[in-house]
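Hello again,

I reread your note about wanting to compare the complex against the isolated chains. To keep things tidy I'm splitting this into two emails, and this first one only covers the full assembly. Below are the input lines as submitted, including protein chains and any nucleic acid or small-molecule components. They are followed by the predicted structure of everything together. The single-chain runs will come separately.
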Amino acid sequence: MNEPHNKVSISPVGENKPRIDAREKVTGAAIFADDLQFGSALLHARIKRSPHPHALIKKVDVSKARALPGVKAVVTGEDFPGYIGLYLQDRYIFCRDRVRYIGDPVAGVAAISEEIAHQAVELIEVEYEVLPPVLDPEFGASAQAPLLHPDLAKYVVANFIFPEGGTNISNHFKIRKGNVEEAWGQCAAVIERKYHVPHIQHVPIEPHVATARVDETGEITLWGSSQSPFAQRNLIAQSMGISQSKMRVIAPFVGGGFGCKAGVSMEALAVAIASQVKGRPVKLLLTREEEFYTAFVRQGLTAYFKIGCDEKGRLLAMENKFYWDGGAYTEYGVNITRASGYSSSGPYEVPNIKTDSYCVYTNHPVGGPMRGFGMPEMHAGLEQCIDELAHAIGMDAVEFRRRNCLKTGSVLVTGSQMHPTGLPQCIEKAAEAIGWGWKAAPSAPNKRRGKGLALMWKAPAMPPNAGSSAWVELAEDGSVSVGVGGQDIGQGVFTVAAQMAAAALGVPYESVRVATPVDTRYSPYEWQTVASRLTWSMGNAIVNAARDARQQILKTVSEAWEESPNDLDIVNGVVISFKTEREIPLKNLVIYGLPKPDGQGWRGGPVVGRGSFMPTYVTGLDAETGQGERAVVHYTTGAQAVELEIDLETGRIEILKGVSAFDVGKAINPELVKAQMEGGFVQGMSSALFESLQLRNGAVQNPSFVDYRIATAVDAPKDLQAYIIEVPQDDGPWGARGIGEHSMVPTIPAIANAIYDAVGVRLDGPPFTAEKVYLAMVDAGIIQ
Amino acid sequence: MTFHQINLTVNGEAEQVVVASNVTLMRMLRENLALTGVKNGCSAGECGACTVLMNGEPVNSCMVLAVECEGAEIITVEGLAKDHQLDPLQSALINEGGVQCGFCTPGVLMSARALLNRNPQPGEDQIREALVGNLCRCTGYTRIVEGIQAAAAISAAGGRP
Amino acid sequence: MIRNTHPTLPEFEYIRPQSVGEACDFLTRHAADARPFLGGTDVFVRMRDGVLNPKYLVDVKALPGMQEIRFDPQSGLTIGAAVNMNRVIAAAETREHYPLLADACRSVASYQLRSRATVVGNICNASPAGDTLGACLAFNGVLHIQSSQGVRQELLSNFFRGPGKTTLQTGEIAAALFLPLPHAGSQGVYIKLGRNKLSDLSLVGVTALGYPDPGAPSGYRFRLILASVAPTPLIAKQAEDCLAAQPVTPASIQEAARLASEACAPIDDVRGSARYRKQMVKNLSARALTSVWEKLNRRGQNDISSD
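Full-complex prediction:
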């Protein structure tokens, strides 16, 4: 049958395809790392942890633990001298000489049951010499503070991180642009504020789990809940002093990451313990309680802002000082300091700006990446200052943002120019959807309503040369397998990967599967599943791989048909010729190739496309000024707005409506994009209203769901709206940019601005608990 | 340590298992019966990821001893679909996009199934209230709620006997 | 300091006695290392935390009468110790005669936790934050306590001795809660303030109950019981008396709320400050009493219109 071939193929890109993993996940079939079955060989690990925020280890006695029946290994820092860390190698796998936070691992046990391992840990005796702790980053940065890392100057460090040896400052990032001192004189209004953003936890519902096995030849296999199988391969191999090729990481589905399963944390402990019981898998599963104080936490931030504008509302100057409470180790956190520095203007054009962003060691839990990578913390204060500044000159806060926000071509804080951006459209959309300028009556006499809006920007924060790769392979029936090293942590990237491969190759979405689980032995390299970079970076690699496969296919067919490849296309899994209207389904050629005429042999063969992507155009920034040609690959921008109601008798806030509008360049799967916006809003809202790790003398006081509350189904607003703006990105597949993190960046200040709108109080930082809001209203005389 | 032999029904199958006193229903389902759709999120009855139906009522299986389940009927997420036919809740959760990382999903489904069993046409507030014991960090809950509403509508139209 | 939480439940022996006598004997014989348990929702958590380390857990749920909920129109409601909160909420007798108790139960944790949690367990835990304690006290609840000596009855108002401390003796088992018939025309309300909207422990809990009493100068009597602001559930006696002694008006309600706030002695803890709690006792007591008063009046009007 001869169908006309000029019909346009329907590209799955931009379509709301159902999640590729949904059926597995709703039936309980999806395998997560804790679900893997290892049989009776499995040993269980538990960790002996420091009870002190800061102390020297004088002696570790493990003899009683070793003697306990059922214990197979006890390890300490003695056995593992290698440093480990992503940007700054500042930690040992197990502490060797010093402990730096409550929970710091001192020894590890493997036993035949979790309970025996637990008992063995209790039998380990450690003598400490307790040292004074650093519990505040500003104090930590001062000359009076005890030194937590005397060897800081000797640590291996990435060349864009600037530790100050002999201090607790593990990175100092500076912006010096224009002349701030001169600019203050021209300002009609200046706002100066200090904010504190507390430590919070990511709280994936799946706790960290890692199972490691080391075989007789020393080859290591690690099964883990991981955003970063390749980074774990690299960093653990380096620390253990083995070849990366002897370290294999297998990463099944991840039950939520939000950053805490990036880089290396507890995984190295499981590997280290397993190395002492060769042949037996050793599983380490963090309890929920450990999850709260030993997994990466979001760093605390003490931020100072000074922002000024002229009488027309034009932003003239900013002076910012950020003290990041990096915790005991800042191997990953140092780059948060940098990212917040090169983004410290917020999404605004500011001619004069001076920023000092310090990463400071403290004796708090280890800071690490969390959804937003410093941006929610920084925007929390900045976007409140913008509101205050607008009010100070008598301008509507949205109008103020319209005037000052980044537009295409604006000069950025680092001196380069803004790429095409839809931020102005995002502002309009969010303002319109929230009904800006119009106030509804409260639902009861004892309540007050308010609206708030905030903007954001964020770039993928990563080394300049973080790479991606992919392969595309076809099976006998023409179905397609896409190999990737990025991870689906809930964001839906496997679905998007399949959509992009299908579109780039010319096959139906339904015929594509993603080769999972990610396994560093077989999957192609991916730096990490972080920074909202996969749709963009891994997407580019997938497109390249699909094009490679496509070229192989078209070459075979064009030779067989003696046509130009330019006249051929692949549509819906069929190679067609626009010239001759011939067609052949992929399944007829992708494995066995095509026969030459008259039995003269064959051409083609199995098709495997390969592709990689690495941004090659990111330049360094001057260490003294933070100025450079292109600091980052691109910025995703957006706006959120909220409407809330406050109970004057309790201070309780109810979020009635949340609106998100982000410029994602191109939504590969619009419903998945909206789902990111909704989920991010609620996570941001939860951090704004409820969440903080309550630290007292370095100890987390609320390490459980009982006392660390996160938003439940009744706390989340019923009215959640998400709007997609699409101003394409030149280096993204189909113009796409990332959206995973951005949706929780402006939520805190949007809520803070709405609180002010409702009752006229400003708090010095989240969480805006009922108690804080109530007492602030009392102290401000708003209620009696 | 004493071991107990218990007989119970799990997803319609008669099972006999031998467990120590301190083994929870969650551990027994995951470790003895390989029903790993039952998720361990906190072991403290707070997150709801391990929710299963015990004699028709949802329980946090981390807060029930296996030995207490003598004679009980247990349904886990693996028992929701019948003959490869998804429960309307499962289909609706897929269609409405109520699944992201998928770790809370089994518990959410079991709470929702219990809700629809006792109240086939719940309002939005009732749905949200029935989910307070199921923490989800990914979705913001909206699409989960919409999924349950859609499933209730399908069931009302005769989608499930 | 950190608490090295057990990854799973520590080891213990599970005991299921066949009779009350057997249970009480066992508990007496192993006084130091045996505990009775009902839903386990509290015991298991505290065992994982290492706070409790019993060698034996004695499951008393299957003992005679423990699963019964029984209403006698002449005397009142008897709730077996093992009746879970969802059953209490769903029972027609509770909804009709003790809706305040159903409301209090509904505020506890989550549906799936309430499938296991029991009112009697809540009472025996004697947490100052216990949500159902106020309602049970307001209804003048009596605990039926079994021991080898037989059954003794303990007024709840005499039962609580401190956080986690009660008059329950070693070898005794709380078998049932008895709630006498409420006073005619009773109206109640439970207001719970948590850090988030539902499922939290109470930062402050206010139980208020009112009923017409021609013997009271105001014509009404009120009960006002506060959670999480004292070592035990706090009966705000002066507030209660204040509303019996003078006509119930917005002003007298404010006065009663102020007295309640003065009577409580909250502490600062991880959930909230004493200062906030004290203010919330005032505001929420006023809110609860106002709500009860409105219900009493509505009911009065209904009664008149239905005559």
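For quick reference: The CA atoms of residues 18 and 116 of chain B lie 33 Å apart.

B.
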